[in-house]
């Protein structure tokens, strides 16, 4: 396989001012490596070289060949053939990297790269490569709606041709079939211009065939399939399909009854997500999770220019609204923050729409989940944005509220007349849930606002009369106080600062589409009615007082007939939901800690610790129910908090120091808690720490020493637990942990599996890594423990870890093992780690460093006689050990350049270094000799002049020679105690009169 060695081809389109990113640099390095293996080789030699290299650097070789395929059409066929021959994992590595490359950088691909990508997918499909369907899925996301530019049309048509040509392959992937149908149904809507008629007809024929052949699979698309089919209903082929759906459903599938079957099925999030490109998705997620109100306009203007500037792009608004409604489900913490809310983004999309058709489709997209809403199956987060858009727009944009209310009234009889009653019921279910879940406490101010015109108000009152009578909603939540609500100056709005306060969705913290039936009612009558009659007065007292004493009284009164665990779980969840979360000061007193135990939840822990067996069983079953409901997230870490308070209390009660030392932390209770819930101990601890840090970092830090003492076998070096801690603490809390470590009260690490933990930490944030290394330093971790990761650290990507290791090495003396590991690092002109370490050591240990460097260099050449240079065992490096000769020479060249800049070549003038340079020069290839010509030029060709040689032997070589020929006793003494040379670096602070 002969390949011409030329300048590295380009994957991406880059401007003159753009720097290469890490992805581009990675692929270029892999390409250069691949070319170095096959350049100037025959086909057989190239195959042999690739097979040898792939054993050690499988991913590097694969990426290099992938880049060659994507950028060099003339070599692609041969390169793909070779790739399939050498691949050790069925091309899994290539497919994973290709998917990531598409998701991250497709928009920057060169035209050649885009063409070759389609060619590569065709080849993989033709060869039935496993996993290529996921690549198709990811690439199809870039076939954007609302875009008829040549680049987008090329992708749309190319993928369509691939699917048509590979129909038998496509038939094997039902999920991909659904994605193809959903995507092209959406695209057909945009392809109604004259020059795309041929493409549209090809799309129509293909999609109709897929729907009819795979209708059972297509049914899983749910209600949004109907929405897309409505948009193309005027096309003859789809008109006929509609006739069959409505009138002859059995001709499509024996299991298909009518269109209601589709409309009552919620469309999966992944399909809603698929109609935005990954780039659009990232921007919308950023806008709704990171941008504060008051700073949002510039982001919206940029988004408008980037994605919504053309007439064709108006249809994208429906896709974006469906994505925001169905996929972006913020947590309650985000809802309570000053981040721009979903309803404000949707309001902006509606008010900036310039097409009547697009505006109608956008409103339908907003209300689509209302029409057949089922509380048992659907999520309240899908209906929340629409009601909040109407509510918040009433003050500053009453026209928006009016048009949405008008649309909601008209959609009931007009969506599908035969289903008018079902649409009405779906909308009523939605409004009922909105009131029950307190999204809005009352609908009357919205439905009967004086800002609405008289005709619309009449229509609304007639349509929703159940929600407009006597100023109360259907659940009886009164209107009291609604007129007294004040507005803050920074509330979100479309174009001004006036608005109502941000509502909080109580109790619905689910972000994973859990059925709403699992969110249990908390109203008092139902809670009390679920308990035995003897306990109801105690329950009423507990709901009124919300104290530990009331909870204890209730639990002590639990006698046969016992309450059900579900009833107790619901009761305690209702009691705790309005209480302040568990928080303490940074240095809590015993009085403060005892006060915290007055919360009702700790009464259950008291019973768990000292109650009768029946009571313990009831509490354990109640904990199971609470965990299943996730109704009290603080349960686990509250138990840890309780156990520590009890431990501290017991220690204070013992005055005898000996007995005080024997007080035990009752960790068995927490272990039993985990066992009862069928949880792994360490994962439960991590989950509880994660929930604790969201509530109060002081509680977390207060628990850390005891958790690491009592569960040390499970938690030491546990990466997730450690990450939670360092991602939570501030500088003061870090200092506290360091002090506890120095006092001997905290041990967070062990040497087992240390490298894995350090490698994982490299992806953490800068401050998190800083905290980790401070803790490692406090634990006096040996430099030997971090040596294995040194060759893996990138000076660009892992600056935090590399700096910390450098400072550790600064405190160490040079040794063969350390020098060997740091010289295993790849050569990079910008990486000064090796140079900095060696040059610092030279200030105190120059002769030893020179000796070690000489041994390291000499032993890289197996041809050198082993008798030429003997050293004691400590200085001997096995000849077969890394690093390679090229790496050693490369690092020595960097050291030489540094020495030249400092005008101090003494280390290279030592006899041991001279001999090593001469030996390596004589054993190096001509290529290496040319590459390191300046380095080898430091080796003297003749014997040292007598004067220089005598001086060198007196100053440097004599101790070494004496050591070589002395007894073992002398040798050991010389290595243990060695006089330091005077430092040659300048002092940072000089003493002067």
From TrEMBL:
Residues 475-502, 956-993 are annotated as: Disordered. Residues 493-502 have a biased composition (Acidic residues). It holds the Pfam family HEAT_Ints3_C. Keywords: Cytoplasm, Nucleus. Its main location: cytoplasm. Residues 592-939 form the Ints3-like C-terminal domain. It comes from the Eukaryota. Belongs to the Integrator subunit 3 family. This is SOSS complex subunit A homolog. It comes from Leptosia nina.
